[in-house]
Write a structure and sequence with these properties.
The chain is of the alpha/beta class. Helices cover about 35% and strands about 20% of the residues. The protein is built from 15 helices and 13 strands. Helix 1 links the parallel strand 1 and strand 2. Helix 9 crosses helix 10. The chain is globular. The structure holds nicotinamide-adenine-dinucleotide and L-homoserine.
Length: about 375
């Protein structure tokens, strides 16, 4: 086994300064969670690195990858991507040592990309940001978790000047968070949000016509990387509730998950078992879902999973929409997010497109990383 020097602990320091005029801007990157999104991100980083160095003077250096048990530090990508468990260079995971390793290059930027769905990782954001390490993530836990932790994270970023990017938390690669932020920052006011915020549920209800059992479709969505690590997060509506909380907070509302009325699709018997047991017993959802489909057809409509935020009232659940409704015409994993604001009052501003999948989500994380680099002085225009 290759020995790796023990890295010093994190200490508070300001985010790396804007680069000097000569030489590339070096960004040291650590990827936490080399699952579907994390692996896609590693591939995208590897592919884009030569062009970014050549055209933008940005040098991306992947310094390490950590899952919940192992971390790989400064080895080549084949080993880093987590698929090579026989790699010589792994050591037991420790996120403090991991962050210190990625950030341990004086005067250079460090960015941690959290591609887990873990609260344990989100608990580290405030310390990382306070230490001047930028964080980019599609993990919804921080932005939709306890308000106390969220405020601590914001204060840490404020104090050091480090950035937190979380565009991928809502709508995967779609510009949803940034669109809302731009509206609010330019003086608009959010009146309501209505939409389909789950790629998985959109895909399931687009496909569910009774010819294939609902459980088989859930397994397919899981295999394609659309679902959360535990598909119950999608089917319970909690993943969508998290997205609604993120949007509400972006608009200045101190909303929490407890404030969202969530109608779950999970039979009570399956709510608390292990994920593996749930996947084995998925067939128990088939009969209740077939009944819902029959009811929707009898009413002359189609099933869609809809989220609403109106003032501080937030709700998430399945509903029957008329065949002519815009939500009935969304395709595949399409998310639809309709922002009604003071400016967009006669006709809502709509963001629509694929809302799940490792590639598009990884691209949102990557774009957040590039925005951080842009804020630090990298030229990103095409002129
Ligand atoms: N898949 C999508 O379409 C999509 C879209 C938008 C957002 N997201 C978000 O992206 C994240 C990743 O999704 P995924 O589909 O890649 O899931 P995944 O299950 O494939 O990967 C999760 C990874 O996180 C790692 N992990 C778990 N706990 C950890 C810990 N404590 N420390 C370090 N690593 C840990 C796991 O080992 C795994 O490698 C989730 O937060 C999800 O909500 C996913
Ligand atoms: N599982 C989520 C991923 C995107 O957050 C969805 O299907 O929408």
């Amino acid at each position: 086994m290759v020995s790796i020097a023990i890295v010093p602990p994190l200490s508070p320091r300001p985010a790396a300064p804007v680069r000097a005029v000569s030489g590339p801007l070096v960004v040291n990157v650590g990827v936490v969670g080399p699952g579907k999104v994390g692996s896609a991100l590693l591939s995208q980083l590897r592919l884009a690195a030569p062009r970014l160095l050549r055209d933008c003077g940005l040098e991306l250096r992947v310094r390490g990858v950590s899952d919940s048990r192992h971390m790989w530090l400064d080895c080549d990508d084949e080993a880093l991507n987590g698929r090579t468990h026989g790699a010589q260079t792994w050591r037991p995971a420790a996120l403090d040592a991991f962050a210190a390793h990625v950030a341990g290059h004086h005067g250079e930027m460090a960015v941690l990309a959290d591609c887990s769905a873990s609260d344990v990782v989100a608990d580290w954001y405030a310390a990382w940001l306070a230490a001047g390490i930028h964080v980019v993530t599609p993990n919804k836990r921080a932005a939709s978790g306890s308000l106390e932790r969220w405020r601590r994270i914001g204060a840490a970023a404020q104090s050091s000047g480090a950035h937190l990017g979380y565009e991928g938390t809502v709508g995967a690669g779609l510009p949803v968070v940034q669109t809302l932020r731009d509206l609010v920052d330019t003086g608009d006011e959010l009146a309501a949000v209505e939409g389909m915020l789950s790629g998985t549920l959109a895909w399931l209800f687009n496909r569910f016509d009774g010819s294939v059992p609902f459980s088989a479709l859930v397994r397919e969505a899981h295999a394609m990387g659309y679902t959360e690590p535990d598909p119950r997060d999608d089917l319970s509506g909690m993943d969508v509730a998290r997205k609604l909380v993120i949007l509400a907070r972006e608009a200045g509302l101190a909303l929490s998950l407890d404030d969202v009325s969530v109608a779950s699709l999970i039979p009570p018997d399956l709510a608390d078992c292990s994920r593996d047991e749930f996947m084995e017993r998925l067939g128990e959802m088939d009969a209740p879902m077939a009944s819902r489909l029959a009811e929707a057809r009898q009413a002359g409509g189609v099933l869609r999973h809809v989220a609403r935020l109106d003032g501080a009232r937030a709700s998430v659940g399945i509903q029957v929409v008329e065949p002519g409704h815009a939500f009935a015409h969304a395709r595949l994993t399409d998310n639809v997010v309709r922002f009604a604001t003071r400016r967009y009052c006669d006709n809502a501003l709509v963001v629509q497109g694929p809302g799940a999948g490792p590639e598009v989500t990884a691209a949102a994380v990557f774009a957040d990383l590039l925005r951080v680099a842009g804020a630090m002085g990298v030229k990103r225009c095409a002129c």
